[in-house]
Amino acid sequence: MTIPAGASLDAAVDSLAANHVIEHAAAFRLYARLRGLAGSLKSGVYLLQQDESWSDVVAALERGRGVEQRFTVREGLRLAEVADLARAQLKIPRDSFLAAAEDSVLLVSVGLPAEVPSAEGYLFPTTYLLPLRIGARELVRVMTHQFTQQWSPEWQARLDSLHFSRHELVTLASIVEAEVRYDPDRPFVSAVYHNRLKRGMRLEADPTVSYAYGRRLKRVWEKNLAVRSPYNTYLHTGLPPGPIGQPGRAGLVAALYPADVPFLYFVAQPDGKHIFSSTYAEHLAAIQRVKQLQRAARASLRPGREPPTPRR
């Protein structure tokens, strides 16, 4: 909706009502006058939602919020992929966004630890309503601020009981996020990794190998497992140096509160759900079961398309 220059409060209220932003024009007009909007109304083009509170509407018209655009970041995207999205949707140069996300001064100013090399893992995945022509640095601030807002106070006590730093927790959550296609599996995948860490086992997480390559691999082959990188959890025990993507709230919760189960292994079925096992013998049997499912599904695939061989 548009509020022309010099428009009166009555004209603005009529426009709000016509665009179904408010339902009770007379009551809102009285509310707006009591809030002093008649003397501080800003002209401009506004994107206001039908379910916005009256206080938010008045605040928007007072500060001239102007046209806004939606920017949706899904769970699991990597920093480079968020940069590509910002370039495509917000016209922010990719290099500018990456530079802002790796600016140590900016990262410290938004509350990230000084040792964190980039905003990877802290660009919270959600739908944002942003002003037009937002810059790279401001976008990084908005997204990292949203991460901070999502961080519940009681989580710090939980971190202490796990003997994890927040950065380690976000790193683990990003791996869980990358592994899971079936949402209820999250706490069980988290349990596998927590149990492996406690036993000093390597995590052997395929998504970390893909991250080490700097691009998404359609399939992680045996030859890929030898890539020399601190992110390769097939070669290095413990967590990688940092997150491998942006975990959502569900991923963070799963990493904080793993299921109380003894599982050490899991393998993905063709439908994306996982089979979990406590022993390696059970795991080998699960792999054979998945292979049977793959063979059964193969008839429906085009010639030459083979499902990946499961590992873990």
Summarize this structure briefly.
This protein is mainly alpha-helical. It has helices at 9-18, 25-34, 54-63, 79-90, 94-101, 104-109, 136-150, 154-162, 166-179, 186-199, 206-212, 249-256, 280-298, and strands at 2-3, 44-45, 68-72, 127-131, 265-268, 274-277.
List the helices and strands and how they pair.
Elements: E1 2-3, H1 9-18, H2 25-34, E2 44-45, H3 54-63, E3 68-72, H4 79-90, H5 94-101, H6 104-109, E4 127-131, H7 136-150, H8 154-162, H9 166-179, H10 186-199, H11 206-212, H12 249-256, E5 265-268, E6 274-277, H13 280-298
Query: What is the number of domains?
Result: 3
Largest sheet: 2 strands, antiparallel
- The total of helices stands at 13
Coarse morphology? elongated
| Widest beta sheet: strand line-up | 1-2
Strand content: 5-15%
Integer average pLDDT: 90
Order of helices and strands: EHHEHEHHHEHHHHHHEEH
Helix content: 40-55%
Unreliable runs: none
Q: Give the helix/strand class.
A: mainly alpha
**What distance lies between the first and last C-alpha atoms, to the nearest angstrom?**
55 Å
Q: Got a strand count?
A: 6
Gyration radius from CA atoms, angstroms: 25 Å
Structure write-up:
By secondary structure, the protein is mainly alpha-helical. It folds into three domains: 2-66, Endolytic murein transglycosylase (Dna Ligase, domain 1), CATH 3.30.1490.480; 69-150, no CATH class; 154-263, no CATH class. The chain is built from 13 helices and six strands. It has helices at residues 9-18, 25-34, 54-63, 79-90, 94-101, 104-109, 136-150, 154-162, 166-179, 186-199, 206-212, 249-256, 280-298; strands at 2-3, 44-45, 68-72, 127-131, 265-268, 274-277. The strands form three sheets. Strands 1-2 form a two-stranded antiparallel sheet. The chain has a two-stranded antiparallel sheet with strand order 3-4. Strand 5 and strand 6 form a beta hairpin. Helix 1 crosses helix 2, helix 4 (79-90) packs across helix 5 and helix 10 packs across helix 12. The protein is elongated. The termini are far apart. The mean pLDDT is 90.
